[in-house]
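We both want to read discrete structure tokens more fluently, so let's practise on a single case. Once you have written the record down, we can walk along the chain together.
***
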Amino acid sequence: MSNLLIQGADAVMTGRAGDAARAGAVDIRVRDGVITEMAAGLGPADGEQVLDAKGCVVYPGWVNTHHHLFQSVLKAVPEGINEPLFGWLGAVPYPRLTRIRDRHLEVAAEVGLAELLLSGTSTCADHHYIYYGGLDSEMGDVLFEVAERLGLRFTLCRGGATEQGRHPGYPNDLQPETLDAYVADVERLAGRYHQSGPRAMRQVVMAPTTPTFSVNPDTLRELARAGRGLGLRLHSHLSETANYVEYCRDVHNMTPVDFCGENEWLGEDVWFAHMVHVADSEIPILAETGTGIAHCPQSNCRLGSGIARVPEMAARGIPISLAVDGAASNEAADMIQEAHTTWMIHRALGGADAVTVEDVIHWGTMGGARILGLDQVGELAPGQAADLAVYDLDQPRYFGMHDPAIAPVTGGGSASVRHLLVDGRVRVRDGAIPGLDLAGLRARAAAAVAELN
């Protein structure tokens, strides 16, 4: 780990909310993975490596709180390109889940994590749900190994199901796991990989695929208790489509949030992906319990699921984060494009002042880190982890910007990452991931697509 000085940036965004969102044109000094100083005009100390940020803006590394990395080799499958969620699930991932082997998962994870790195992402939480009775692979280990190789912070949200066919429209015909097998694997993964602390590099989360029908209520409570007993957080999908809500009302006679509350799945250690269809009565409950959301606007738009009420949720104090979801329902699964979409869609719905760029950066950095329990991540300030992206404003889309600080979010597209640091280590240098053969990765991804077609 080097002593570093990031010098000469045009602007630095802190990841904080409101007036504290901007630090101005300051330099950033890093020691042992932590920011020690931020001020204008800092000079290099003895033995300090200088990273040139002239013509650039600096953001905290994005924190992606919900992904499905295995889907990075299932992009734009023709049968599912115009299908809503359940039709898409039945056409794209579920027919292929038992055919996905470790070699497919490894290349998919490399593709997905490389895409995240090159968009300025330093932390990824992957909701991996390829688990079923008779699976002869420990796929969680594969994901941790790839994340270690590429150098991101990585959280494995260990998915799975112990029930089959509870929702009549859900296309899951996989043999379910037993509760004992599920919990035993979470215990194994936690014992091997899970770290505690405010800047942990590796975490494990208890994350059944869907709380309302992938498990029964008794099992849901058992999983909550087992996860919390291990010191783990809890995560799942919730209220992604109207079908989810209708099923919960018909079968459980309550809203999804009420159901989760009845079964010990609300709290500051819980966050849910999507929550597009949330009722008025559910918002105060989420706020009172501190339950968070992984907002996935691109996937929700792609599948026609709707748009979550995120500005309203944020105003009520509900923890908000951003996430790309799976690349099979979001073919551009990078956090810059996710942030750009977030900024655009809520203004279309709520007016030109509904969401600011500062809001979006806060949700996608510090907001996501807090949801993951990483209290020393996602913010650029002395004492915080040196997770940061140096964006080069060298593309025509950024020329003519009067406010360069907001250019990566307002411009969208594929931003140029000059450098990316994770815990003070350089993981992208001069726009490339050191040691990663992109041409070779492209060929291996094409081979995986051919096998899974």
Q: What stands out?
A: The chain has a mean pLDDT of 96. DSSP finds 14 helices and 19 strands in the chain.
